[in-house]
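Look over both lines:
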Amino acid sequence: MTGPTPATTTNARICPDCDGFATAAVTSGPREASGQLPTLAVNCAACHGNGTVPLRPRLTAADVEVAA
């Protein structure tokens, strides 16, 4: 197999609240006279419709405080 190696570091992860499905169609009432169902596009509140959230910074040994 030849070619470039894929990058191993990412700067985002899938949103745990919506599992990456950031926008949902929600029905908003009865059918119209034309037969269409009115819908609203609602974005995830955690990721604001992106489907990803930023990675949290990694903890190092210097960041951890142990109470004795």
In short: The chain has a mean pLDDT of 82.
